[in-house]
Amino acid sequence: MKKVLVLVEGFTEKRFVEDILKPYFHNKGIFVIARNLKGISKYEIINKEVNNLLKDTSATLVTTMIDYYRLPSDFPQKQQLNLQLQSYKKVEILESAFGDDIQNSKFLPYLQLHEFEALLFSEVSHFSKVLSTKSHVSYFEKIVQTLEPEEINDQPNTSPANRIKNIFPQYQKESHGAILAKAIGLEKMREKCPHFSQWIELLENSL
């Protein structure tokens, strides 16, 4: 069985890898292990942890699951990034710069557009079941009628997580986020989130 190490941003992403990605890849002969950064303040921290994981000679591949939203300002190419570019193009440039900086054939960079909660907008009907916001589901439905989940932007008041908190202030990423992700499932997320789906496909094809 091949081993993949996934450097994740926090507890929720770690649980996501363990609860959803690990069983999926296990059926394909791939053993997935999440390593938690427990928050990010500087790119230096990310770089150090990625290179530490790459020292594991038993790992076939090392990848990341880090939010594009609030990415450290010193991240490769972030200061030079044209903010007028389409979202998918922006992460493509940053992921490429990330890979160029690490310079290791075993490394597959991935940035989540725009943050973990975007995946939860793949099926907004589950919000009413988990968050007890039945009367407000129409608010979430209107969002996904005009924006794909990965296109929900990265402004402080309109990021995916903040849109949820605007309706459900008690939302907790660590508890509600993980429950919602499991309820929605990987198949629906891949259907609605092409950049995320491409990452899963790249992992499958790189091994």
Model description:
The chain has 207 residues and is an alpha/beta fold. It has nine helices and five strands; from the N terminus they run βαβαβαββαααααα. Strands 1, 2, 3, 4 and 5 form a five-stranded parallel β-sheet that branches. 36% of the residues are buried.
Keywords, separated by commas or semicolons:
Rossmann fold; single chain; 207 residues; 2 domains; 9 helices; alpha/beta
Task: Quickly describe the structure.
With 207 residues, this protein is α/β, with parallel strands linked by helices. It has helices at 11-26, 43-54, 87-102, 126-131, 137-146, 160-167, 173-184, 186-192, 194-205, and strands spanning 2-8, 30-36, 61-67, 107-108, 111-112. The chain has 9 helices and 5 strands; from the N terminus they run E-H-E-H-E-H-E-E-H-H-H-H-H-H.
Number of strands: 5
Structural class: alpha/beta
Seen as an oligomer or otherwise, the chain set is: single chain
Structural domain tally: 2
List the helices and strands and how they pair.
Layout: E1 2-8, H1 11-26, E2 30-36, H2 43-54, E3 61-67, H3 87-102, E4 107-108, E5 111-112, H4 126-131, H5 137-146, H6 160-167, H7 173-184, H8 186-192, H9 194-205
Parallel strand pairs: 1-2, 1-3, 3-4, 3-5
Helix pairs in contact: 1-7, 8-9
